[in-house]
Write a structure and sequence with these properties.
Pfam families: DUF247 (PF03140). With about 120 residues, this protein is mainly alpha-helical. The chain has 5 helices and 2 strands; from the N terminus they run αβαααβα. It has a two-stranded parallel sheet.
């Protein structure tokens, strides 16, 4: 029965080492929730990580195959402005400019973001 007690001691030491290692992981910004998929994952199945119909963020905005939906985005904006005649396009632009930095903070650009996110979620 000496085996299990040695294992328990080794497990405790490993856990202690891991706790110390996890303390070194920098925290994510509080609003950060959009992660770029690391190239090592994308290369296994590029299509699984690429939009098919619409681009919402800046990463795939200029892709030619997504351009047909850009006209729909303009229609939606026009419809919104027509339904809300008390809001001007200039007001919308000013409001969005004011939110630009906050929106940018939602994107986490570290190449190891998936690993860090998993580690951070594990600790919560």
């Amino acid at each position: 029965m000496a085996g299990p007690s040695i294992q328990v001691g080794a497990d405790s030491q490993l856990a202690t080492t891991m706790v110390e290692m996890l303390r070194e992981v920098p925290p994510l910004p509080t609003e950060c929730c959009i992660f770029k998929v690391p190239e090592s994952l994308r290369s296994g199945n590029e299509e699984a990580y690429t939009p098919i119909v619409i681009s919402i963020g800046p990463l795939h905005h200029e892709e030619k195959k997504l351009q047909p939906f850009e006209a729909h985005k303009k229609r939606y904006l026009s419809s919104f402005l027509q339904r809300n005649s008390d809001i001007s396009l200039e007001d919308c632009v000013k409001l969005l400019r004011g939110l630009e930095e906050r929106a940018h903070n939602f994107y986490f650009e570290d190449q190891f973001s998936v690993a860090i996110a998993v580690t951070t979620n594990f600790l919560e």
